[in-house]
Structures are given as C-alpha cells and as structure tokens.
Write the structure tokens for this entry.
Amino acid sequence: MNTKKILFIGGLGLQSTKIGGQIIKNRILVNFIEKNVVNSRFEVLDSLGAKKKILTFFGKLIRRTILKKYTNIVISLPTPNALKLLKLMFVIKKIRDFHLTYLVIGGSLPERLKANPKLLKYLSICDQICPETQNMVNFLNSKGLNNVFQIPNFKNYSYIPKLNDRSNDVILKTVFFSRVCKEKGVELAIGAVKQLSKKYAVKLDIYGPIDDSYKRKLELLIKDTPNIRYNGVLKPDTNETYEILSQYDLMLFPTLLENEGFAGAIIDSFIAGVPVLASKWPNGLEIITENETGWFFEQNNIDELVSKLEFLIKNKNKLYSVRGNCIEEAKKYHVDNVLPKLLKEMNIEV
C-alpha cells in the first residue's frame, strides 16, 4: 500500500499560550490523525504567528507543497486566511496535483461569497470543502459547488457527568463560557441577570479569554454585583473543565454574531449535561433543539432573554429533565464518531 504524505496547515499555537476555538479544534484533529492514521507521513505547518513572519511562512509552504509532493493537504484556518491560501493553492495545483481538503472554521464563508462571488473559483479546486453545519452545506451547493461534505465541530472526551437533581435548589446557577467580549453577548447576559436579581436568586459565572482592552469594561459591568463573577479561563477539553461546568444549571450563549459557526462551547456544555439558552442564530438551530437540549431567544433581545430565564427559574424541573438529552447529543460530536468519516472521504485509512 502506498504511503500517504499529509500536510496539515492550521493554527495550533505550538509556541504560544493563546487558546481559542480554532486552536482547540485543530489540536484535536492533529492528535487524532497522529494516533490513528496508518501508512502515512504526517507534517504540520502552524499558521499562528505567520503575520509576523509572513514571508517565511509562505516560503515554507511553497517549498513543502511543490518539492515534498504531499498526497493530501488539509487547510483548517479562519475564513479570511483560508481564502487567501486557496488563491495560492490555485496556482500551485497547476504545477502539481494533490488531494486538497478545506475544513471551514466559523460561519462567515457564505457572507464572504455573497460579497465576492469570484472566490468560488478558488473553492472549486478543493476535493472537499467541509463546513460545520448543513445550513452552510446547502448554501455552498446552491452556488454550484458539488465538493461539499459536512463535518461538525468535534471533541475528544471521556467525562461522564453525574445527573444529580438540583431542581429544588433556591439559586439558579448560570454560566457564560466563551470569548469574553460584546460580540459574544456577555453584556446581554450580565444585563439580564442584573434585572432578574431584583426578584430572584440567580448567579452568573463568566469564564473565557478576555482582551486587555475589554478588562476594564467588564470590571465596570460587574462592579457591586456579588452574584456575577469573572472566574478566568478554563482548561479546554479536560475533565476538570467538564466537572466545573456540570455544577451549573444552565449555560447562556447570547451571541450577537449572525455568522456564528458551530460553537465548541455548546458541545462542552452538552458533555457536562448542561442545557443551553442561546440567541437564535442560523447555524445554532442545527445544534440546539428547543425544549430538548436548550432554548432560544431572539438575537440581541434582552427582554426575551429575561423572560426565558424567568420561565426556567419558575420551572427548574425542565432544566433537569433535559440533561440526559444533552449528554446523548454530545456523543454525536465525539471525534470517534466524526473524524473517521472525514478521513474516509480523503481516502486515508484509519
């Protein structure tokens, strides 16, 4: 059997302490390939830090793709960077052929294509384009692309939560677990909990990376609110993180982004057995099922968010009746149930 030579291009943060959805996803994928793929030679080109050494990065890329004769190249980058790289691949593929897979990160690709339809020709050189949701698959198919294959976000975990019924607890414990910024809706979550605190016992704990430029704003938002705290950053994809999340009754995911993709934080919440109250964004309707794994409110509508929270405070039994559903839903996104399908499409043996 011929040996496959695979090059992975994506942000891994191998020389950085930075963390985020892109890095988490790429590290899981790389670890899975390294452990499970037989008859292959696997190399990684870490894109993080490339802005500072852009010429060095592209020099390495051109030398590797042309001279090393990879059979498979996988691109897993944020959409703007991926599209730039595909323009280069469009030229390189005229020199030599290889199997090209583009793993779409986030949900902004349709928006980019609407703004610039000429980008379609660069996507057409891919053997697979793998967006995270069927919503994006349908959009790309409508643009004439027939090389589209859905690969949802994924996690590698072994954690099994304890389904303790806390429906009689007085306090509703909510958690925000995402990048801490206005765009992810943290201000909406804080505002809603502040309103409800006038009538009910409710708390909000906030976890996630935060830019230095936003720290002062957050401090002011939660000043003099002992029931709302910022607790720092959790270690991604660890039992410790799932153990912490499992102590909450409800995750709040009030994103303001219309092009929000398949948020890994929602899978983390399901793994921990915690339902999600989320703003209604297009891709989210595929991830959360109303009344089964969570609930929705209209995007950027604090009144509806408060109303849904008040309903759940008064009906806490509903939160515990769906916890088992969340745990079952998470299993769909375990690496063992997702990545073998991807590698099969790439003609790579597992």
